[in-house]
User: Fold this.
Amino acid sequence: MLQTPDCCTHANSMLNFFKIFLDAPLSAKFGLLVIFIYAVFSIFAPLLAPYGETEILGAAYELWSDKFLLGTDNIGRDMLSRLIYGGRNIIGLALLITFLGFSIGSITGMIAAALGGWVDQLFSRITDVLMAIPALIFALLILSVLGTSMPYLIGTIAIIDSTRVFRIARATAMNVAVMDYVEVARLRGEKLGWVMLKEILPNITAPLLAEFGLRFCFVFLFISALSFLGLGIQPPTADWGSMVRDNSTLITYDDITPLLPAGAIALLTVAVNFVVDWMLHKSSGLKDVS
Assistant:
């Protein structure tokens, strides 16, 4: 039997991707393009940034010039370099926390839906308690007590984020857990892990993927808010939230430099939401209205 070469398989995958991209609405194309640009700058930050992340190069608050295209910050570091590195740091951290929180929430949600009974009640009541506390207040309390080191920051936000994912995963999985083919798998003697992985998860993937995008936006904005308050990513590591805080005094002098990291946060959030809306529309099976 003839086998398709790997190069042909990759070529077909690329063609399918471009076909999906061309068929996407204008808003989704814009979102995908913005996400691609952010990804390139994040991956190749050391090559694209003109200076080092923490390198002090001049006086504080220097104006835009040929040497410093976006000027310098409050202690003389290049703003453009900090902007590029800040995107890499905050996007990478947001992806890590989203993946961790999503894993916790989706696994516990599927377990609660598959087992039901006291397990479902236990997980649901714990989630209710955590969701009853405002997320920002909960994070400020935990980080103020335990400290702002990276493990505590990741763990705190991941736990907060997992509660929302648990609700979505449990609700969608409960609709699948009562289906005949799931009952057949159980009667066949399949274990819980097999039922979750082979029967439940494939049928709830579409809403979970869309929820992943929304959760990423939440985590991304949440980290930015904590950094602005001084409890997020700690200096001298660059991130957009702390850059807004450190350079906010320039606004009183009609300098838009502090608005650049704020604009970068807003642009990525809008782009991800455009793509998520498109994914939800495709997974719903609705047709575009001409």
Notes: The longest helix spans residues 79-115. Residues 89 and 124 are 33 Å apart (CA to CA).
